[in-house]
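[Help] Beginner question about ligand-bound structures

Sorry if this is basic. My supervisor gave me a protein sequence and a SMILES string for zinc ion and asked me to "get the holo structure". I don't really know what that means in practice or what format the answer should be in. Inputs are pasted below exactly as I got them.
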Amino acid sequence: MSYPKEVIMQANALTAKRRADAEQIQRIRHTEITAKVPDVAKYEAELAKTGLEVVRALTMGEDAEKYIKGLAKQNLHIQELIGNELEKAGYPRDYLKTPYTCSVCSDTGFVEGVACECRKALLKELNVARLEKVSPARYCRFDNFDVSLYDSTVDPRYGFSPRERMGDIFEYCRCYADDFDESSCSLYMHGATGLGKTHLSLAIANVACAKGFNVLYYPAHNLLSLLEKEKFSGNSGETEQEVLDCDLLIIDDLGSEFSTQFTVSALYNIINTRFNLSKPVIISTNLNEEELEKRYTQRVTSRIIGYCESLLFVGRDVRQIKSEMQ
Ligand SMILES: [Zn+2]
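Answer (accepted):
No worries, everyone starts somewhere. Holo just means with the ligand present. The predicted complex, written as structure tokens, is below.
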């Protein structure tokens, strides 16, 4: 599990900004108080003196501990006096305390070399935001996937109703997301348009992102045209490396793009490399096997179908049903 480099850099920059802002506010307040409440400066000078005393006490040997305890008590007393002065002047008692966002790590992100809870939360938040920037992930969650929109009449072709099937797929995807890790299996979501393939793949992505996995989502046509552009502009490699390295790759709506010899070989290279490394991929398509073969050759199609867990989405276009209900 690894957060993407850009997420880590964003988190570092944001934490540093929080710290700098808090310290700037503290400096401004300090200047203000020094001018308006002169006794505070007097007490602060005493505090500085006890600080120096502590340093000196460290060389005292056996008696040091007792002496330092006494100094700490004295220190607390002076801080109390400063609080009293501030209160008398109409300020909050902690007005001179640096207003860090996180008082546990003082906005450094770490406590004794270990990531603070605030850093963990920030990384998750930025990771999810990164996914939301390139996809409708915000609107595609498990809690707003409505199985009741699917028909409950048994389809004689399959022997089950779309609702029954979609209920099973929904449960499968939810468990998949809950248990997701770098060695999860790959999924092949197929079936007609508007049946919730994008919704469920992004619901999985949301959960995986919030758990701290590096998830990349691409509509197939965006990914393949990006790879093509990079290849022919001479600076190829960056996107390809990212899609090979990430913890979960989602290729949505495969077959919607114009396929060429380049896209066929680029797609094969990506899925084959990831499959060989047992790295999960979620592929969704509206095409049936025959159509996929026509567009992407038998080699690509059989690699996908032979390797991935197949989820066949059935029913009527849910978007159409929703619009009929309005
Ligand atoms: Zn913290």
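A couple of things worth pointing out: The mean pLDDT is 90. The chain is about 60% helix and 10% strand. Feel free to follow up in the thread.
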